[in-house]
Amino acid sequence: MSALVWVAAMLLAVCMEEPAVLLSPVKGAPIMVLLPDSPQLAQQAFQRWEPAVSSHGWSLLAPTTADMLAPADMALRALEATLEKVQARLAPDRQRIYLVGEGAGASAVFYFASRRPDLWAAAAAVGGNPRSAIETNRLFAANTLHVPVLWLPPEQDRLAESLRARLLQAGYNLAKPTRVPLSQAELLTWLAQHTRPTHPNRIDCETGDPAFGRCYWAQITELDFSRRNDVLGSSRVNLGSGAWLDLGRGFSVDAEAEGPGAVVSGLAQDYKGPLRVGDRIVAIAGKPIADGRAYLEFMETQREERGVGVIVDRGPQRLRLEARIRLPQGRN
What are the structural domains of the chain? Predict the structure, then answer.
């Protein structure tokens, strides 16, 4: 990365109103939006991707704050507002805005591509998995009709096949890689094959919130549930068990971090539970939890609500917390 580009990127991160981003700017060019694994890894991810993205003549934009990295409506609004500021400044090729996420950022890719499909030409999830996006219960597969999403799950991901099947069953536009792994250059070449249609002849838009009712040339302004069309089935991606550990809503676990235990990687701004970032969940209901994957597998197998004891390592401390395994309404 050239010193000039790095200075420009750092100046933008410092000078822009929050939320901050890193930007390697090229006027009139496509933009690749990079969602890093965490805010702490944003700079490292930006430096790793910038040479390949610049060689394509594209701009690279990477958020550096947590409020743009979660599979949530608030995060998408923050990212969209930031992207609009950058677009006003760079006048980019709006038919070629690409979305790429790494690790935990990959889950947000699945969500953002479905929730605002008209923003993106194509998307790629490198590592990570869509479980957090699916658990929002707002992941609508039909919306991705014109947004192919390439998923490159981590090697030895024991949940990948079942999650892939769940997405495909709902009709999610999940692209198949030509081979695994793909290099950065190969991934960028794949993205470059796609452009965003401005006025597609057919669109499928499903939402439960008019705030996310814009879809290409259509704008949903009001929802009337008394006129629901039950002939057309919903494309909502199935939750599976949908079980979650009630230690306060709004904590996330790093599915790729090594053990011991499942590492708590993020907390929502309004989180009020007992966990802290960096805690390791090492056992639930007496069952050892080896790592983040083991935690996700354990939750996927839960079919009833019950109270459980949770063992958490916090540095040298070992804590025992009381919690409940909960299921979505109507599944208990």
Answer: 3-227 (3.40.50.1820), 244-326 (2.30.42.10)
